[in-house]
Amino acid sequence: MINFAQPQYLLLIFLVPLFFVFYALMLHFRKRRIRRFGDERLVSELMPSASRAKGWVRISLFSLAFFFFVIGLSRPQIGAKLKEHKAKGAEIMIALDVSNSMLAEDYSPNRLDRAKLAISRLVDRLRDDRIGLIVFAGTSFVQLPVTTDYVSAKMFLNSITTESVPIQGTAIGDAINTAIRSFSAQSEKSRAIIVITDGENHEDDPIAAAKQAAEMGIRVFTIGVGSDEGKPIPMNGELLKDKNGDIVVTRLDENTLKEVAAAGNGSYVRAGNSEFGLNPIVDEIKKMEAEQFNSIVFEEFDEQYMYFFAIALVLFVIEMLIGDRRMKRHLF
C-alpha cells in the first residue's frame, strides 16, 4: 500500500505537458527569427553542429526528472500494516454541559470555553488512557466514542458550542446513562465518568443514574462550574431574559452535584480559574486498577521520498551533460 503524506504536490505533475508545449513554441519562434535573418537551409548549413533531436531528448529528460521530483515532494510511504497494540489505562467519559447557562462569564472567557480549555489540557496529559466525550443539555449524545486518538479528541472538542444540542435544559441523569452505555466491551474495572456542569435546572434524576453507575463499578465525578452569586447569560449581544422581561441569572447548584458524586462513589470538585478541577480527579482515577486494552493500529509508514529525489537528481545531471550539439565522432 502506498500512501502520500503531502498529496497536494501531485498537482504539479500537470505542468509536465506544458514543458513540451512551451518548448515547441520556443522552436517555432526561433524558426521565425532565423527566417528573418536569412534562408533557413543556409543558416542550418552555417551551424552544422546544432542538433534538433537533442533538444527534444533534453526536454524529455527534464520532464521525467521533474516528475520524479514531484513524487518525492509528495512523500510516498509504504509499509502500512495492521498491528495489535496493547496498553494499560483507564476509560474516562467526560460529560460536558453545553446549555445556554454555560455562556455565563464568571470564568474567563466563559464557563464553556474555560471547561473546553481544561479538557484540552487534560488530553495532553493522557498516555494510554482512553477518553470519550458526551455533550448534553436537555438531552445528550456521544460527541466522541472512547478512543486513544487524542488529536481527534481535540478536534471534536473545538467544534463544541451551545448549539451542539438543540434542546435546552440540564439533563445530567440522561448524560450519565449515555456515558454508561458508551464504555467499550473490554472495560470492566477502571471506568469513570466526569460530569462538568453548573448543575442548575436538572430535569431528571441524576442521583439514581449515578447509583446505577456505581453498582456497575463505574465511578462518577462531578465538577461544578459557576458561582454562588450567579451571572447573567449573554446571548446575541444582549443578556438573556425570561418571559417577564427580567434578566436571567444562573447560579451554581453545588448540593445536587455533591449528592451525584456521593451516589456515584466519586468526588465533587468546584472549578476554579487557576485549577479547574480535572487534574485532581484524573490523579484519583489513575489510582484505580489499570486495565489492559487491545486495539488494532497501523504501523508507521516507511518514507520513500529519498529514492525519488535520487532518480530526479541523476536525470537532471544527465540532461545537463547532453548539451545541444551533435557528436563530432561517429561509432561507424
From TrEMBL:
Domain of life the protein comes from: Bacteria
Keywords per UniProt: Cell membrane, Membrane, Transmembrane, Transmembrane helix
Transmembrane segments: 6-26, 55-73, 305-322
VWFA domain ranges (all copies): 91-285
InterPro entries: UPF0353/GerABKA_families (IPR050768), VWF_A (IPR002035), vWFA_dom_sf (IPR036465)
Pfam families documented for this protein: VWA
Keyword ATP-binding tagged: no
Name by which UniProt lists this protein: VWA domain-containing protein
Provenance organism: Candidatus Cryptobacteroides merdavium
